[in-house]
Amino acid sequence: MSELWIATLGASAICYLLKILGYSLPQSTLNNPRIQRVNTFIPIVLLSALVAVQTLTIDSQVIVDHRLAGVAVAAIALKMRASFPLMMILAALTSALIYNFI
Amino acid sequence: MGQNSCVSFERRTVLRDSLSVAIPVGSYGAAFGAAAVAGGFSVLQACALSLLLFSGASQFAVVGVMAGGGTPLSSIATGALLGIRNGLYGMRMAPILKLTGIQRFFGAQITIDESTGVALSQENRGEAAMRYGFFATGIGVFVFWNLFTFIGALGANSIGDPSSWGLDAAVPAAFLGLVWPRLVNTKARLAALLSVLLALSLTPFLGAGLPIIATVFIALVIGWK
């Protein structure tokens, strides 16, 4: 099995397990405020790290290129309350223009 | 009669709430499909992720880590960490939905941000409205998300170099769009900033994907007290 299939099926299986676990565990687990708080921050740190790594790295090097301009435009679009698809299109357009013409 | 029309009116209102979430969110599936193919996944693998994993942030993470040269293990771990919250949503929804048998297996799969969010927003309309909102939103997002994943994956499959179409910037922009609404206070913004710095400074030293997982440490420290 290719690495991509392992990632696809492995992540799907574990994420489904987490979903079904929620319906099987006692509700008292949820009442622990510490678990609640840590869980609020998990998506924040992982998604922020993904933004940084996908924007500024290639392999194991930190590199500034056309992608940063695209993501900067996305941030401005989000600040101006643009919709999700519009924000992505503006980011792609900015990055593509710089990549192709500069 | 009066009672009935009241109930059906309420259903229509809940259905409208559900679809107004399900259709736009589902259409982002196109972005996922395109990102997956740009990251080296096949159209079939992109569609499999949307059908079987069905949780946007985890799906983008699995694709992002693999595209960045990570191992399947770090890709699965990142996807799973982002999937923990669905388990917590399940705990919240279980006493409301009271699912049994096969219903539970299906209900679990559509337990995501949007279905839980719409269900909880119907609290003042009663538990029946919450259940209806949960299923209408969950099924709606599932149908549209999978449909648009296929369209986006096909579209990206027919173009050449992803960079010349800006797809390499659109993927981090998608992550930015996912994290943006969560940056509601100083603590959240601090967590985001620290994890950007930590991930970038670890990048030269750790294998791809691991600097991302390492930022969970920040969530533990900030969330602990």
Structure explained in plain terms:
The complex is a heterodimer of chains A (102) and B (225). Chain A is mainly α. Chain A is built from four helices and two strands, in the order ααββαα. In chain A, strands 1-2 form a two-stranded antiparallel sheet. In chain A, a hairpin with a 2-residue loop joins strand 1 and strand 2 (61-62). In chain A, helix 3 packs antiparallel against helix 4. With 225 residues, chain B is mainly α. Chain B folds into two domains: 2-182, no CATH class; 183-225. Chain B has twelve helices and no strands. In chain B, helix 2 packs across helix 3 (43-53), helix 2 (29-38) packs parallel to helix 8 and helix 10 packs antiparallel against helix 12 (216-224). The N and C termini of chain B lie far apart (54 Å). The relative contact order of chain B is 0.16. The model of chain B is unreliable at 1-5 (pLDDT under 50). The chains are: A mainly alpha (102), B mainly alpha (225). The interface between A and B is large, with 75 and 99 residues.
Q: Could you provide a short overview of the structure?
A:
The complex is a heterodimer of chains A (about 100) and B (about 220). Chain A is mainly alpha-helical.
Write the layout of secondary structure elements.
The complex is a heterodimer of chains A (102) and B (225).
Chain A: H1 3-22, H2 33-56, E1 57-58, E2 61-62, H3 66-79, H4 84-101
Antiparallel strand pairs in A: 1-2
Helix pairs in contact in A: 3-4
Chain B: H1 2-27, H2 29-38, H3 43-53, H4 56-67, H5 72-97, H6 101-109, H7 113-121, H8 127-157, H9 167-179, H10 186-202, H11 210-214, H12 216-224
Number of strands of chain B: 0
Which shape of chain B, going by the Cα principal axes? Answer: globular
Radius of gyration of chain B: 19 Å
Give the number of domains of chain A.
2
Instruction: Report Rg of chain A.
Output: 19 Å
Low-confidence stretches of chain B: 1-5
Mean of residue pLDDT values of chain B: 90
Report strand % of chain B: under 5%
Shape, principal axes of CA atoms of chain A: extended
Query: Mean pLDDT of chain A, rounded to whole units?
Result: 91
Instruction: Measure the end-to-end span of chain B.
Output: 54 Å
Largest inter-chain contact set: A-B, 75 and 99 residues
Quaternary state reads: heterodimer
Class inferred from helices and paired strands of chain A: mainly alpha
**Largest sheet composition of chain B:** none
Main beta-sheet annotation of chain A: 2 strands, antiparallel
Low-pLDDT runs of chain A: none
